[in-house]
Amino acid sequence: MSADSKQPQPPEDGAATAADSTSLLLSHARLTDGRTVDVRLAGGRIEAVGTAGSLTTVGARVDLGGYLLLPAAAEPHAHADTALSADTPGPVSYAPEEVQRRATEAALLQLGHGATALRAHVRIGDVHGLGPLEAVLQARRSLRGLADLTAVAVPRLLTGVAGADGLAMLRDAVKMGAGVVGGCPDLDPDPAGYVEAVLGVAAEHGVPVDLHTDGDDPARLARLAAMAGGLRPGVTIGPCAGLARLPPDAAGRAADRLAEAGVTVVCLPQGGCGGTEVRGAAPVRLLRTAGVRVAAGSGALRDVANPVGRGDPLEAAYLLASLGGLPPQEAYGTVSARARAAMGLPEVRVEAGFPAELLAVRGERLAGVLSLAYSRIVVHRGRVVARTSAVREYCDSAAALDLPRQARPERPPEPGGPPAGPDVRS
User: Do residues 31 and 359 touch, judged by C-beta distance below 8 A?
Assistant: First the structure.
């Protein structure tokens, strides 16, 4: 069973994680419906939700007063093998220790942003063989208990004489532990043959498919949809930025085909990635109107394809709301509920019985959180795994004191020091 299947996965070594045996109370958290609640976590799940002050616990307590509590984000489209390589002098190193270091650091960075599950595309073949994949799988093992990382094996060629080695290596990658098969059919001399080969390996091993495509060829998209229809566990494509450049009628027909086939589209609002050439964003509203399941990912994280990529799911949601016109709730859903669905992960709600995969962001309403998502607390498998705290300070002046802000009570002055002014937490 792959790491992206719909059932929660036990730890790979069969041992219980620390999260499974602890209890945690999140008190005075605000929900998107306006309620302020206590949330008790146990065994990696939400055990109870009650009005603020109504729940008790024998374990730890985290005061979430001033925070909005959300289902955690997930990252459906990362590139772990090239992440954080933009500033590397000379050629990017694919030495296993370097790839593992970058993949681990990138996953922790995205975890701090709120993504407790990540799907990372990893190139295989050419001179590097399966080395980068093994390094990413080692990073996955080192992250156990902090975040769930799934590797997507991405071969370069799969058709013709040159593609025979790639096809054999793709099968080996799945046996090694790649939970998803993917690739870039647009770059193969026979794109339809490439897709057919990937779907064949996926059917053999019962794993999902995640393909890179610009989506600028309606006929090619139609063939892909026809071949992918009905495949389980499912087919995801992205970033499909080229679909936005098609005439509206052609784009609408392509979207209808994808919806009928049950294909999920992952867009990249923060920029592209090395697997495609076209920049821009997929036509999210057109796709959603057609009934296509649309999730949002980050793509390149500070590599040559996007040297300023942040890997922040809340920024992706912000861009979909700000530039794409989605309501804040729908925009956040693309990086949370729909991203998790695209990855085959269990649904998360702030309700009893659901997985304790949560993100608390300082703020009162979702629109404000997407606008100024600074301070964050991340919960994975029922325990706090990351905290980010931002403090904004203003000088002690009348203008500063008149600004609207979130303030703590004034601190007492340090002995022998100057009077302490107010500080502002964002």
Answer: no
CA distance 336 to 120: 16
DSSP conformation letters of 313-382: HHHHHHHHHHTT---HHHHHHHHTHHHHHHTTPPP--SSTTSB--EEEEESSSHHHHHHS--SEEEEETT
In 10 A of CB 331, how many CB atoms?
26
Taking the C-alpha atoms of residue 402 and residue 228, their distance in angstroms, rounded to an integer, is 59
> Which token pair is 359?
């993100």
Residue with the two structure tokens 């790639």: 166
SS3 at position 266: strand
At what angle are helices 313-322 and 328-335 packed, to 10 degrees? 140
Burial group, residue 218, by CB count within 10 angstroms (0-12, 13-18, 19+): middle
Q: How far apart are CA 153 and CA 172, in angstroms?
A: 10
One pLDDT digit (tens) per residue for the chain, 426 residues: 334 433 334 333 333 344 445 689 999 999 999 999 999 999 999 999 999 999 988 889 999 999 999 999 999 999 999 999 998 888 899 999 999 999 999 999 999 999 999 999 999 998 889 999 999 999 999 999 999 999 999 999 999 998 999 999 999 999 999 999 999 999 999 999 999 999 999 999 999 999 999 999 999 999 999 999 878 889 999 999 999 999 999 999 999 999 999 999 999 999 888 766 567 789 999 999 999 999 999 999 999 889 999 999 999 999 999 999 999 999 999 999 999 999 999 999 999 999 999 999 999 999 999 999 889 999 999 999 999 998 888 877 666 555 555 544 444 444 444 444 444 455
Q: Is the peptide bond before 412 cis (omega within 30 degrees of 0)?
A: no
**Which of 31, 27, 26 is closest to 329 using CA atoms?**
31
Tokens of 153: 């094996």
CA distances from 102 to 97, 115, 291, 367 (A): 9, 17, 37, 32
Alpha carbon distance 150, 154 (integer Å):
13
Class of residue 73 by CB neighbours under 10 A (exposed 0-12, middle 13-18, buried 19+): buried
- Whether residue 239 is preceded by a cis peptide bond, meaning omega within 30 degrees of 0, is yes
DSSP, collapsed to helix, strand or coil, labels residue 237 as: strand
Cα dihedral 41, 47, 52, 56 sign:
negative
